[in-house]
């Protein structure tokens, strides 16, 4: 099997041109492999931590766990958002024991021996009658973690040398949502599920639609090209010939992609009954815009709400799925906006995906199944697996 990207990826459409192996099965449950992926991927990349509104005001904090690492994110009285390893410099106790809240004082105080740090991370008080000679308070500040806000979301990076933020975007377009009112959005509903699968299994499922007709019958009606097991027009090897033919049949969403005729959003009946966001016309037309930020999240943006999906590895065979539904306060207050329909429909799709991810994980455990194969439509799975492999090979 040839795994050379140049020869495997088709150039005239999205697809694989030759039989290509999947990743070895043990990469989805082996503890050593999982640890390598934490160290080389999860501890090196920008990770979605929380929505910016959760740490909007001074002294608001939030903790997040990534693998074995704990991070505290806190906004200082100076309005600056900072992040630190949630570890005291004395003997290493966890500092913040709550997952979120607002600090009473402008200090983080260790619950063990009460060392105290200001919100810039400086040690301001060490509890001992006599500070030993050579004790340098200035050198014992909290360990910093890189933090940044983008589009109303807070990201952290555990690496002392964070990669350029744009590099996390698989299509390279950190500006793709610039025309969207991202800063105005609030979280209206959250769905959390612990999936019994490796984190890569969920991403692989996200990267193909071969499963759509059988796993997502409802969604495949709303997005007709999914019923053909394709994600978009260019996934069809015949797409250029179809267009050139001038046959009006190929103008149908079943071939072109997008939502079914008359539908405007992802919900039970597909109809948005509110004015929606002021959007660039092509985004409104598309019915959904997807942004993928590896390894941590994807965003599905619709005309009247935005959905974020965050993954967090909890173990070799356990991954937390967190889905947030966001919109503007105006849309959420509009009685014509049916949040329940949006949540019900989309949660159904997410749980269908979580279900097959767990099935996938179960089968991968077979001692007979050392490796799988990728079908031509699984080009994005291939690209994801290449990304994982190349990240693991970095020094
Ligand atoms: S471990 Fe924090 S004060 Fe002792
Ligand atoms: Fe799916």
Biggest sheet strand order reads 2-11-10-5-4-3-6
Question: Average pLDDT value?
Answer: 95
Q: Can you name the CATH architecture of the largest domain?
A: Alpha-Beta Complex
Question: Measured on Cα atoms, how large is the radius of gyration?
Answer: 23 Å
Helix content estimate: 10-25%
Q: Main sheet?
A: 7 strands, antiparallel
- How many domains comprise the coordinates? 2
Silhouette: globular
What is the level 1 CATH name of the largest domain?
Alpha Beta
What percentage of amino acids are in beta strands? 15-25%
Molecules bound to protein: FE2/S2 (inorganic) cluster, fe (ii) ion
Question: What this model shows, in words?
Answer:
The strands form four sheets. The protein has a seven-stranded antiparallel β-sheet with strand order 2-11-10-5-4-3-6, with no helix packed on it. Strands 12-16-15-14-13 form a five-stranded antiparallel β-sheet. A three-stranded antiparallel β-sheet has the order 7-8-9, with no helix packed on it. It folds into two domains: 5-42 and 168-393, Naphthalene 1,2-dioxygenase Alpha Subunit, Chain A, domain 1 (Alpha-Beta Complex), CATH 3.90.380.10; 47-162, 3-layer Sandwich (Rieske Iron-sulfur Protein), CATH 2.102.10.10. Helix content is 25%, strand content 25%. The chain is built from eleven helices and 17 strands. With 395 residues, it is an alpha+beta fold. A hairpin with a 6-residue loop joins strand 7 and strand 8. Helix 2 (31-42) crosses helix 11 (379-393), helix 3 packs across helix 10 (339-364) and helix 3 packs antiparallel against helix 11. Fe (ii) ion (FE2) binds next to loops.
């Amino acid at each position: 099997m040839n795994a050379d990207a140049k020869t495997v990826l088709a150039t005239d459409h999205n697809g694989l041109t030759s039989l290509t192996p999947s990743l070895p099965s043990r990469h989805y449950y082996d503890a050593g492999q999982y640890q390598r992926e934490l160290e080389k991927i999860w501890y090196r990349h920008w990770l979605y931590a929380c929505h910016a509104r959760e740490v909007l005001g001074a002294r608001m904090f939030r903790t997040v766990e990534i693998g074995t690492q704990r991070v505290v994110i806190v906004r200082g009285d100076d309005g600056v958002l900072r992040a630190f390893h949630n570890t005291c410099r004395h003997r290493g106790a966890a500092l913040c024991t709550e997952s979120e809240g607002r600090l009473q004082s402008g200090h983080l105080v260790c619950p063990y021996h009460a060392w105290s740090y200001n919100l810039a991370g400086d040690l301001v008080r060490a509890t001992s009658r006599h500070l030993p000679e050579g004790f340098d308070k200035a050198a014992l500040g909290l360990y910093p973690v890189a933090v940044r806000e983008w589009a109303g979301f807070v990201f952290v990076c555990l690496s002392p040398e964070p990669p350029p933020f744009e590099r996390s975007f698989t299509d390279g377009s950190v500006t793709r949502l610039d025309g969207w009112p991202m800063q105005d959005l609030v979280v209206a509903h959250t769905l959390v599920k612990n999936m019994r699968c490796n984190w890569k299994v969920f991403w692989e499922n996200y990267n193909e639609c071969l499963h759509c007709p059988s796993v997502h019958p409802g969604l495949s009606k709303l997005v007709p090209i999914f019923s053909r097991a394709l994600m978009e027009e260019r996934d069809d090897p015949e797409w250029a010939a179809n267009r050139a033919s001038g046959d009006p049949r190929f103008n149908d969403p079943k071939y072109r992609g997008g939502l079914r005729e008359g539908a405007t959003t992802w919900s039970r009946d597909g109809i948005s009954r509110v004015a929606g966001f002021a959007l660039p016309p092509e985004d409104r037309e598309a019915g959904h815009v997807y942004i993928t930020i590896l390894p941590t999240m994807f965003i599905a943006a619709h005309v009247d709400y935005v959905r974020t999906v965050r993954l967090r590895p909890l173990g070799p065979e356990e991954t937390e799925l967190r889905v947030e539904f966001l919109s503007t306060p105006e849309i959420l207050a509009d009685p014509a906006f049916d949040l329940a329909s949006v949540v019900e429909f989309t949660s159904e799709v997410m749980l269908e995906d979580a279900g097959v991810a767990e099935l996938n994980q179960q089968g991968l455990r077979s001692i007979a199944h050392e490796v799988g194969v990728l079908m031509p439509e699984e080009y994005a799975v291939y690209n994801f697996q290449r990304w994982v492999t190349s990240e693991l090979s970095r020094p």
